[in-house]
User: Which sequence fits this backbone?
């Protein structure tokens, strides 16, 4: 089962911690400099939100990015 990754780009302060912890899932977008899900796994990209779906093997990585976020802007949840 894949996982849904949501980045609240309003809360995001573009600190770079999530992309540093998990570059396979996150990077700072060149639209507004805030975190987003990489193109490969992106489902929706907006100014204020980025939503993606990542495979099981990237759960740990995606979760680590969420855990290091100082403003809790990232959620990772199992897709049922
Ligand atoms: S760790 Fe949080 S605040 Fe920092 S770039 Fe990632 S989402 Fe944005």
Assistant:
């Amino acid at each position: 089962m894949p996982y849904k990754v949501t980045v609240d780009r309003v809360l995001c302060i573009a600190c770079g911690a999530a992309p540093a912890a998990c570059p396979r899932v996150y990077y700072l977008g060149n639209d507004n400099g805030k975190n987003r899900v990489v193109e490969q796994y992106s489902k929706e990209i907006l100014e204020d939100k980025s939503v993606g779906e990542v495979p099981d093997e990237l759960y740990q990585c995606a979760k680590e990015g969420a855990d290091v976020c100082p403003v809790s802007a990232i959620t990772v949840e199992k897709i049922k």
Q: What stands out?
A: Residues 7, 12-18, 35, 68-71, 73-74 surround iron/sulfur cluster (CB under 6 Å).
